[in-house]
Write a structure and sequence with these properties.
single chain, 548 residues, mainly alpha, Growth Hormone, Chain: A, 2 domains, four-stranded antiparallel β-sheet
Length: 548
């Protein structure tokens, strides 16, 4: 393929090789008259301004690969088509994507966190007494942990299904089903019943985070992803701010037909079911079937993320990519970080209201005093993801963010119970931990290429997330109430070790980038272009550089 245009400067060159994708990008500073007549037949040239022009052609044999799903479906949509658009057009498309997708992700993520943490609030609203949990045993801890047993067992199957089934439809079905399970909490009359509904709730919620990571990486550029992930992940804090007053208001009701904790589960479950049904019709699987974009806007939405080297998501499961994930040292570091970071998270999520209650506050007030944690969570996620995108440095800000909850854990250990205000400050600082986890997920999104490899690494780190949250409640032993000294000690230690893991990830990425730079300087002929939509891994893309 050879292309040229008057007054145009090539941004990338191409090494031709059989049966692969070739393309050439031009940035033109001329009017429509400067474009070749050939190009004008293929697309309508925007008037004035800088113009981004791309052409995607397939050589003999490549279309056969498309039919068998060996490359990304983005190729099927844009192959043989020249896409010409201005930065202004791109901004308009981005605005439409944000308007259609972000509010949906934010709402769903707020719902799932409220649903996940509902037991924390219900624990002070009578669920322990009504289900006859033994206060001298670890039954409440196990009722909390069993959620993550379901999460762990279903994570890899759901990761595979996310790859094989339409992402929007499969995610919507899971949302609807977990809403139904929430409603079924009303019929939990004993310990066994509570364990059952919590187990299935965990299994069904295992889909949402990996689905949203995949969706964000498929719709947004690398330098846009952290901020967008920050938006929907910060809705954990929105859930904390909202659920506290709801639980507080319900807990003051007396002589109700249903126990107040049962009303809480209905308040959460019914909107979740409605949301799932809505998403079935309006959550796109990818750019090609997005109802809010016309054909031209879909082409722009695909072409604008070409530089991610990731495409929009092939449905073919590639075993070579699966096994490559286990050869990548980053995979083990991501998994280790997720495990270490979520052990304290599991304990705090299950025992947060009980810990505040142990500071000397009454049960109803303890429900409200959880709210500032949400403010810290929102603020830190939005701040650190913004800085991460601005400076394109994930690990630095992830490390800073993880130090904050470590300090909070230390404060809860060394400060006496008589200093209630200081203890609350220490507890609230733990809310910053989510910002660090958010940035590590962005690292996975940015640096793990190949759809199967990305799904595998995401699945493994979410497994570690579930394992950590399973272990966490067990570190808060009932025989240590009300101080829970060992539980608080684990909070500080685990966050400190998680910080060390982030440093290790940064060192690995710096070393690999230097190695690739050196090899490119020595063997420039090995640098290839035109492979962004071929569903290749980061190991197979020599011109890819890892985001720190």
């Amino acid at each position: 393929l050879v292309s040229s245009a008057r007054n145009a400067t090539p941004v990338q060159s191409i090494n031709r090789r059989p049966s692969t994708l070739y393309f050439l990008i031009f940035v033109s500073h001329s009017s429509t008259s400067t474009m070749s007549s050939d190009a004008s037949k293929k697309t309508t040239q925007p008037d004035g301004g800088d113009v981004i022009r791309t052409q995607t052609d397939l050589e003999d044999g490549s279309m056969e690969k498309l039919k068998h799903g060996e490359v990304d479906p983005a190729l099927a949509f844009v192959s043989g088509e020249e896409v010409t658009f201005t930065p202004e057009e791109e901004r308009k498309v981005l605005w439409k994507i944000d308007r259609a997708i972000l509010p949906l992700l934010m709402w769903i993520y707020a719902l799932q966190f409220a649903d996940k943490t509902s037991l924390n609030y219900a624990s002070l609203m009578g669920i322990r007494e009504d289900t006859k949990l033994d206060p001298t045993s670890q039954q409440y801890s196990w009722a909390s942990s069993i959620f993550y047993a379901g999460y762990l067992l279903w994570e890899f199957p759901t990761t595979y299904l996310l790859r094989r089934l339409p992402l929007g439809k499969y995610t919507s079905a899971n949302i609807t089903l977990w809403g139904i399970v929430l409603i079924c909490h009303v019929f939990a009359f004993n310990y066994a019943g509570l364990l059952s509904v919590r187990f299935f709730l965990g299994a069904l919620e295992a889909t949402v985070t990996p689905a949203f990571v995949i969706l964000t990486s498929a719709w947004y550029k690398q330098n846009e992803q952290a901020k967008r992930m920050g938006y929907w992940l910060s809705c954990n804090g929105v859930a904390l701010l909202t659920l506290g007053p709801i639980a507080y208001g319900l807990s003051g009701a007396h002589n109700t037909v249903l126990a107040t904790w049962k009303v809480l589960y209905l308040v959460l479950g019914i909107p979740t079911v409605v949301t799932g049904v809505y998403c079935w019709w309006f959550m796109p699987d990818n750019q090609t079937n997005a109802k809010f974009l016309n054909h031209r806007e879909k082409s722009i939405a695909i072409e604008r993320i070409r530089g991610n080297f990731q495409g929009i998501g092939s449905r073919q499961w590639k075993w070579n990519q699966f096994f490559e994930a286990f050869k990548d040292p980053r995979t083990y570091l991501y998994v280790l970080f997720s495990l270490l970071m979520n052990i304290p998270n599991g304990g705090i999520t299950a025992f947060g209201s009980i810990i505040i209650n142990s500071f000397g506050f009454n049960s109803r007030l303890s429900l409200l005093l959880n709210m500032p944690t949400g403010v810290v969570d929102i603020t830190c996620k939005l701040l650190f993801t913004y800085l991460s995108d601005k400076f394109m440095d994930r690990s630095l800000f992830a490390f800073i963010a993880i130090l904050i909850p470590m300090i909070g854990g230390i404060m809860m250990i060394v400060i006496p119970l008589s200093a209630q205000a200081a203890l609350l400050v220490g507890y609230y600082l733990i809310g910053a931990a989510g910002a660090s986890w958010c940035l590590v997920m962005v690292m996975i999104s940015n640096n793990t290429l190949g759809y199967t490899k990305k799904a595998t690494v995401n699945g493994l780190q979410i497994l570690a997330y579930g394992a950590g949250n399973w272990i966490g409640p067990q570190t808060f032993r009932s025989n240590e109430a009300p101080n829970y000294h060992n539980g608080k000690l684990m909070v500080a230690i685990m966050y400190g070790l998680a910080g060390c893991t982030i440093v290790a990830i940064r060192v690995v990425n710096i070393w690999e980038n230097k190695r690739r730079d050196k090899k490119a300087a020595e063997e420039p002929e090995t640098v290839t272009a035109g492979t962004e939509f071929l569903d290749l891994t980061d190991f197979e893309q020599p011109n890819f550089r890892y985001v720190l």
